[in-house]
Design the sequence.
């Protein structure tokens, strides 16, 4: 059962469970310390739960149910919230990690870099991955950083068969 009473200082309507009668509380509106009255006090109303309020409309004379929550004591409590204001900037709680070596190398004073991709290095267990390797690399550096892509043909001596083989590759010049 709820006890409904008014603050003696600001007249704010308060609703408190009857088990708290006799305890001291602070008024949520004005901050005044007050004692919760006994259920049989003259200025105290009691309620057993949320009962919808019925209001008669003047236009058609039919009763309308008014929102019980909107008319309750809790809805009438004014909240005065303050946002803390500081003159100095907030400190960072999470430190930014150091850049990886690859990024640090790209951000150095070097302006251009060269990458050579050979076809023979992209063959894995009989599968030719040359196109995938080139595509992944170009996507990684970005189209705006590409200066030139030059095809190359070259010959090399295969150690296992002692034959001279001809192969191809790409030389990619890009901005670091």
Sequence:
């Amino acid at each position: 059962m709820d006890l409904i009473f008014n603050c003696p200082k600001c007249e704010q309507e308060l609703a408190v469970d009857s088990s708290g009668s006799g305890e001291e509380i602070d008024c949520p509106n004005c901050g005044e310390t007050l004692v919760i009255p006994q259920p049989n006090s003259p200025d105290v109303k009691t309620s057993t739960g949320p009962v919808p309020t019925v209001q008669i409309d003047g236009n058609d004379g039919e009763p309308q149910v008014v929102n019980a929550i909107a008319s309750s004591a809790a809805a009438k409590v004014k909240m005065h919230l303050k946002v803390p204001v500081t003159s100095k900037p907030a400190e960072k709680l999470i430190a930014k990690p150091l850049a990886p070596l690859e990024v640090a190398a790209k951000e150095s004073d070097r302006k251009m870099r060269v990458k050579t991709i050979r076809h023979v290095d992209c063959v894995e267990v009989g599968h030719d991955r040359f196109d995938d390797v080139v595509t992944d690399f170009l996507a990684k550096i970005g189209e705006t950083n590409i200066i030139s892509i030059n095809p190359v043909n070259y010959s090399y001596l295969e150690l296992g068969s002692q034959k001279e083989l001809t192969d191809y590759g790409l030389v990619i010049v890009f901005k670091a």
About this structure: Residues 130-141 form the longest helix (12 residues). The chain has two helices and twelve strands.
